[in-house]
From TrEMBL:
It holds the Pfam family Per1. It is found in: Endomembrane system; Endoplasmic reticulum membrane. Belongs to the PGAP3 family. Keywords: Endoplasmic reticulum, GPI-anchor biosynthesis, Membrane, Signal, Transmembrane, Transmembrane helix. It comes from the Eukaryota. This is Post-GPI attachment to proteins factor 3.
Length: 336
């Protein structure tokens, strides 16, 4: 029988690791960063900014009124000029039949109620809802005695945090919101790999506690190194994407192998749900690799990628619940 101390340690481990990582990336996110794009360097864009700021933001000039809903999202005179000039230059380029370019590392979007990327915000909230609903169902149906439950709850907690920060970043792009979004997304991907190994290789068993501890330390160190590199050495978008893709491919491969193994053993359709989910995610991920300017000024590849991950998240929680209940029933049959 597992002692009460062992159960308590097992329950606290994911939450403690998450708390440490959360504090670390909040501190790191406050350090400054720089982003530039083709649009920033266009002479016509720079001239537009100079004229707008001189006419609307210079000392002694009448203050240009900014609506309350924009001021609540921290839009000021300078950022209003930047946003206005982006739209003006983009309109001119579309009329001239030339390519739309990025400004400050982002495509120019139509703003809605002060929200910079409305579609990405809506789809991020859709993913948040999928995690909230899935986690609520998991808590209701999977008993606390199930050994994998703490890691499943950890998965949901990290997932919810990542989509909250995603919605914040796409609402208003600041250095802080960008870094919180990237660090939270990285934590979500790495935690996915972390708990994948625990489930696939059943590292939750007491006999494998030492292996699980080593694996936990490895993942925490990898995350610390990832955040440290991006913050203290170089903010590298290419590296960040590569790191997330590598982690995603490894865990997707493990879940595909798991699905094949469980399907050949049980011949139950729910056993292939992880394989379906990861294939779905990889298909949606391809949108990130083929970036394009926003369709209608609203839907870009990134927002559609967010839309494409809602369905797999719903399917994933269905699998976690079904898998847990199946394991519990199998254990009860062995007792009988």
């Amino acid at each position: 029988m597992i002692s009460a101390m062992t159960r308590n340690m097992r329950t606290r481990a994911p939450a403690s690791a998450f708390a440490v990582c959360a504090m670390m990336f909040v501190v790191m996110a406050m350090l400054p960063g720089v982003a530039a794009s083709v649009g920033d360097r266009l002479p016509e864009f720079r001239e537009c900014l100079e004229v707008c700021k001189a006419e609307n933001c210079a000392p002694g000039k009448p203050a240009t009124p900014i609506p309350l809903h924009l001021r609540l999202l921290l839009w000021d005179c300078a950022s209003e000029c930047d946003q206005t000039c982006q739209r003006i230059i983009t309109g001119h380029r579309l009329a001239a039949g030339v390519n739309v370019v990025q400004f400050h590392g982002k495509w120019p979007f139509f703003r809605l109620w002060g929200i910079q990327e409305p579609a990405s915000v809506i789809f991020s909230l859709g993913n948040l809802w999928a995690h909230v609903a899935g986690l609520r169902r998991l808590r209701r149906l999977v008993p606390p005695s199930y050994s994998l439950r703490p890691w499943y709850i950890g998965f949901g907690t990290v997932g919810m945090a990542s989509w909250i920060f995603s919605a914040l970043f796409h609402t208003r792009d600041f250095v802080l919101t960008e870094r919180l979004d990237y660090f939270a997304a990285g934590a979500s991907v790495l935690y996915g790999l972390y708990f994948t190994a625990i489930r696939v290789f059943r590292l939750d068993h007491p006999a494998r506690a030492s292996v699980r501890s080593v694996w936990t330390v490895i993942c925490i160190c990898l995350y610390a190194a990832h955040v440290g590199f991006l913050t203290l050495i170089r903010w590298d978008y290419g590296y960040n994407m590569a790191a997330n893709v590598v982690c995603g491919i490894i865990q997707n491969g493990l879940w595909s192998w798991f699905s094949y193994r469980e399907w050949t053993r049980t011949r139950r359709f729910w056993a292939v749900w992880p394989g379906i989910a990861v294939a779905w995610v990889m298909l949606a991920m391809s949108l990130e690799l083929f970036d394009f300017s926003p369709i209608g000024g609203i839907f870009d590849a990134h927002s559609l990628w967010h839309l494409g991950t809602i369905g797999p998240t719903i399917l994933w929680y269905n699998f976690l619940v079904r898998d847990a209940l199946n394991n519990i029933q199998a254990k009860e049959r062995l007792k009988d």
